[in-house]
Every structure is written in C-alpha cells, then in structure tokens.
User: Fold these one by one.
Assistant:
Number 1:
Amino acid sequence: MTTLVKSITLEEFLQLPETKPASEYIEGKISQKPMPQGEHSRLQGKLVATINGVAEPQKIALALPELRCIFGGAAIVPDIAVFRWERIPREPSGRITNRFETYPDWAIEILSPDQSMAKVLRNLLYCSQHGTEIGWLIIPEEASILSVFPSQRVEMLTGTDKLPILNNIDLSLTVEQVFSWLTL
C-alpha cells in the first residue's frame, strides 16, 4: 500500500505517528510494510538468531529486526538490518542509540505474499547505492534469494547455491538451508 503525500519532507515524515506495521519513506513516497505472516516471521527470527549467534559474541556484527534506518533522504525498515560492530550507532556512554541515521551493511528483506517485488528490490538497490555491501531479497514462494551487491549487481540464488555473507562473519548458508527452516 503506497500513499502519495503532497511534498512531505523526511523530517515531516519522521514526526508522523508510528504505524504498525512500520511505514517507510523513500523518494517522496510513504508506504506501509505488510503485516508479517508465518513464513516471514520464522525466516526473520531464524536469520537474526543465526547471524547474531556467530557475529555478536565476537563483536563482528549485530542483526536487528525491523529497524528504521535513516540515510540518503530516506527512512527504510529492512526486515533485518545487519551492522558491522564498529558502525553500530552508540550514545557517549556506549549504549546503543534508538535512532540509526545510517545505512545497514547488510539488508535482508523477506517478500510477503501480497508485497511488490519491484518495491522491495528498489529499496535494496537504494541501500546498495548508499553503501550497503550486501542485500538479500528472500522469495519464499519460489524458494530463491536475490542477492544485491555493490554497483547494483544482482544474482538469483537457488538450491545449493552458497549465500554471500559479510566478510569476517564465520557463517556458511545455502538457499536450501534457509528454506529448510520452514519445515517443522
């Protein structure tokens, strides 16, 4: 669902009341994310736990679900935003900040049944244009994952294809492994 609002700025958007699910602002358009369903929630939870299980103890990176990232004149809420440890915004006390005014190093989106693939891919390409190293668009219906790399290079991965992971994270996953989490 996309709503065109007459000449609203990013700062005006950020002053609007929060919506559930979250709304995003990109290229002057506000759109509300769809409500997550079973497959989406399962994949999101497993990925956050798996990434944090190997990256957080070693202080390499941190995966955060549904985090608003404000950068490049946009406010995007990836299903999972992964930040390298040294790039996690912190208060002077060392405590994590509430407002992340930067791009994620790795952005992961999980396509919901009635969601526009073009819109979600556009968000990942936008992230890539602004510094995100890796983007994943997980497509449960097709058991495939589109990977977005710097320079807007996109690859379709399926089956036993090994997924790209941020450097220094000791994690190896295939597309099959990710989708096997849907079978209980």
Number 2:
Amino acid sequence: MSVPVVLVAGLHGPARTAVVDRLLRERPGALAIHHDLCSITAGSLLRVVRDAGGEREQAVVRLAHGCVTCAVRLDLVPELLRLAGHAPLLIVDLWDSVEPRTVAEALDAEAADELRIAQVITALDAELTPVDVCRGEPLAEVGKPGAAGDRRYLAEVLVRQIEYATVLALPEVLPAPLPEADPENVALCRELLGHLAPLTPVVGPDERLPAIGEAGLCTFELAARVDPATAQLPPETATGEVETVIWRRTGPLHPERFFDAADTLAIESVRSRGRFWLANRPDRMLAWDAVAGVVTVEDAGPWLAALPEAAWELVAPVRRTAATLDWSAEHGDRVQHLVFTGAELDRDRIHALLDSCLMTPGESLAGIDDPFAPILDLKEAV
C-alpha cells in the first residue's frame, strides 16, 4: 500500500514549522523532510529529516542546476521513496517560496505507486498574510528566490499557495511570553481567505486538522481548481472589510482599449483573475492574473467553440462542463469572467471601465494594432 504524503507550504516559516510539529505529534512515527534552499542559487541545499523527537538526519546536497525543479526530482522524490518503508506518514516541509503544485505533480508523475498525496496544507501567519498579499516585491529582493533568476513576486507566490491548498492553517506562531495575535488581524485574515479560497477549510490553532483519508488526491483535479479554463472562481460578495466583485460579459474586448485599461485594473484590487477574449483573437482563451499590482496575461488554449465537435471527446470532462456553463448561442463558451478582490472596491467604476473596453455594435478592427502581440505571440514562439 502507498504511504500518505502531506505537503506543507507557506512563505511564513514559523507558521509552517508549527503545522509540521503538530502533524508529527499527532501521528506517531511520522517523518518530516525539509530542504533549506537558502543556498540553492549556488547549487546546494541542506536536507533535514526529523520526527516528533527532533532531528534525525542532516545532509548538504549538491545540484548540477540550482533550482527547485532539480531539488524535487533529484533529491526529494528519492528521499521520500527511501523513507516510505520507515514511516506511516511522510510530511514534506516545503521551503518558503516553493509552490506546492510543482511538488505534487512531480510526486504524482514519478512515484504514484509508492506515495499518495493525502493533503496540501498552506500554513499562514494570520498577522502577516493581509500585508504580504499586498507586497509586490520580487522574491529575489526579499531573499526567497527558488532559483537563480527567479522573477516571481512575493504576493504572487503567496496567493498561489493559498488557492492551490486543500487546507489553510492559521497556527499560533508567537511563543510565550509574547502577546497572542491580535484577534482583529486574525479575523481579517480569515475574512480574506474566505474570498480568495471560499471552498477551502481554514483551521485555527484550536481546531482539528482534517483527517487523512485512505484515498490520495488527484493532481489533475487540484489543477482544475486553479487553471483558467476551469478555475473555481469566488462568487461576488461583500463582508466586513473585504469585497469580491465579478464582471461577466459575453461580447469581445477591444484589444487597444483593454490593454490601456490593464494597469488601472491591476491596482483596483489586491487580487484579480479570470478568463477573457479579444475581438482579434476569437479562438484563444486568455488568462488574466494580477496580484499586488503585478499583472500577467497568458494564452490558456483554444475555446471549445473554436474546436471541431469531434475534438470535444479529447477534452477532459471538467473542461466540457465549464464550457457548458459559459455557453451562449452567439459566442459559444467565449466569456469575459474577471473577479476582483480587495478592500473598498468601487464596483460601478470597475464595471464602467471594463464595459468601455468592449467592442461596440458595428465597430471594426480595421487599422487597429494588437498591443498584446509582443506578449502573447512571443510566448507562443518560445
């Protein structure tokens, strides 16, 4: 029988350690493995294996290429397989900026018969999360790169860790005799998480973690929860200090007007994401992803309406279901579905700005430049 593996991710190291410690205490015989990547840009890492009693092994590992992918493939997977015969549960204590999806899919691809992913927990510091989700600094500037040349941003990684997880944990990370976390900050963090990942359970310091089941998680299903074509986007709602606004239309966007509005839209909220289409690219689904003012636009593949009907059978059922929910007689599954989350959002302003970017009846694309071409066409060519 395969050994269950729990991935514990999170930028906040003390919170992550608190969750790992709790799992080790609650599951006798469990082992935790952690790779310290502080020196990964120099081609090495420190591997530590521990149990509830403390450290059992430590080793410096040299890598030909200093990156997270190499660390997972060349050291983490073999070590988990080695330890699988010695523990009823394996816990992977992921380093700060490691995104759990990368590790989950690597384990599924290389060791699915021996290891099963039981949970993906993202541990968060309730005091820091509402602040860090607004921070637009590159990881390299805050000393948390996952490789040489890592261009990701702190807030970008944090929201991906939150949105991919199956459990969100808010442990008590302040040791006595320091004061406890401010209840208002904890409440704000829970509120924010309820908007970013409304279907994911949030576990506080005095609450039980969900039980580890016999069946493993399907990484394809985990990916479908966050991938643009099938993402479980949050509904429109307003709570005490956080709001989520949805803009949903079916008509095409004018490429120039939408490009000109992109920077303004990126700073209208803390977090925004979704899928959209441009009048000059009617066959391509485009993904919008923005956090802390940093926006990314990517080609997410064809709309199903642009494919021959025979090709639909080659598409995953979850993708076909998502297309059916978006279907309109005029445009098929082509849709503008963007979601904005933040404080004190001006719904009317966001809607008015986006509505002004839509093509008007009878409007022609003749003579219009495509400012997205340098971004989208370059990525397609690489």
Number 3:
Amino acid sequence: MIVIGAAEVEQRLSWPELVGALDAMFRGGCAAPPRHHHPFDIPGESAGTLLLMPAWVPGAYLGVKMVSVVPDNGSRALPAIAGTYILASALTGETLAIIDGACLTAWRTAAASALASQYLSRQDSANLLVVGTGALSARLAAAHASVRPIRRIAVWGRDRQKAGEAAARIRADGLDAEPVVDLEAAVRSADIVSCATLSREPLVRGAWLQPGAHLDLVGAFNPGMRESDDAAVLRSQIFVDTREGALHEAGDLVQPIRAGLIGPDAIAADLRELCLGLHPGRRSADEVTLFKSVGASLEDLAAAVLVYEKHRAEQAR
C-alpha cells in the first residue's frame, strides 16, 4: 500500500488528462451506489456532514471516499471540505493506495464541470464568472480555461477581500482574473457562470443570464442549499452529473420540483448520456444551459486510478 499526499496529486494530474479520464469512465461505466450522508453536530456551530462514496469497476479497481464538510471552517482559516480516498483492487480486495481526498475532490469536481462545458457551453466562450472564493474557485477557472478560450475571469464573493485573494490565486495560474463587486453586472456579461458556494439562498438570477450563457452549479450539495433562482431553472436546458444524485441532493432542482415548477423529466441528460452521444448537448448559440453537479463516486474513482497508475509508472522507470 502506498500513501499519495496532496503534493503528489497536484504533480500527477493535469486538466486534459483528467477530463479525458472522466469522459472514459462515464462512457465505460462502473458500479456507483448512492452515497451515504451522515450529519454530525458541532457545538456552537453549523452542523457538519460526513459523506461516504463507494465505486468500483468489476475485476479492476474499487474505491471509497470519506469526506467531512464543515461549513464554519472558514473562521479557522481551514477549507470547508476534508477527506481521504482509499483505492483497492476489485479483484483481490487488497488496499492499493490512500490518497489525499480533499485535493482529489477539488480536481475531479472542476474537471467534471469542464467535461460538461465541452458539451454545453458555446465553443467561443471567452468571459468566465466564478461565484465563490473558496478552494474550488481557482480550480474551476483553470478547468474551464482548459476547454474554452477564456480571456477574462471575474470573481465575486460576499467578502471583497476574499474575492481579491481568489482572483490573485487564479492569476498565479497565468490567467487574467479580477474581483468584481456587482454580481448582476458580472452575470450579464459572462459566457460561463461557475458557482461554488455553500449558499442557502439563490445568488444567480435567471433574468441576468445572457442568451447563450452556460450556468455551472457546483457548490450547493443538499436540498436546503441553492445557488440559482427558479427563473434560471425555468429558462435553461438542464443537465446533471447523475440523475439520482441530482434528484435527491441538488437544492437547485429539488426545490423547484417540490414547488411543482418542473418535473424530473426537465433534466435533458446526464454526463454519461452526453459522453455517449445520446444527447447532443447545446442545440443553438442562444440556448441557456445549466449543469448541476453534486459529485459522483465514479469521478473520484477515475481520478484516483489516474493518480495511482501515474505513480506506478513513475516508480517503474
């Protein structure tokens, strides 16, 4: 068994390879049971959430990710998400590697958004708005810029200082990024809007989205959270990473479904159907598309296998 820390995950992964690995895994498929949610109390703070996410390809690899989400970790200058990934042989059950889960999650989450963007955003998308200032903000910017000709990146957050810091992290990756104060104006000028927050109230209004915009909703991961309003959902062609996950966990969809505004059939396709060509994705330059991800264990397994196999290849040299 080997231990692969965050530094090595960073070294082994690249956006083109990871987006390709996710595409291949969605096409090939794997067993991915629903993830387990276990809330846990934190005295004097918002409750945390423990997530367990298993997946396996029969006879090949098996893995499980254990993630804790602590919303108030920002007050301790710590990321809200921490986790560990355990990769094993699906033939013998032998544990092969323990991989830093937080880093792996950040990479695969942003890569899933980039994969969806290849099918859903306009090919000439040049202006990106990142809503949120956490650890995912720079990842999402880099991932989207790896699949579209992004020239300008705006960053919005409730805390102006944190928005400036997030923009600086994006610039450190060689991309043009600046913090913005006016969220409405930023949405109206964006070709792609990528949200990664823990908001419980809508941030992006459908009336603000320009024709042809692509809305990438990453953050809100349970039915009580939401990053977009009803108008955004109603005017968009809706896509998800997995139907089961989205219909049970995505507040951006669960809430309008419960209100009777849309039904489950409003979801045009999931990532597997897009990757297999069972749905064409974007159908016109003026269409507004919405991609909602809540995270899929298939994505974690694809990323973990890529990291592990690249580590093995390096050691064999």
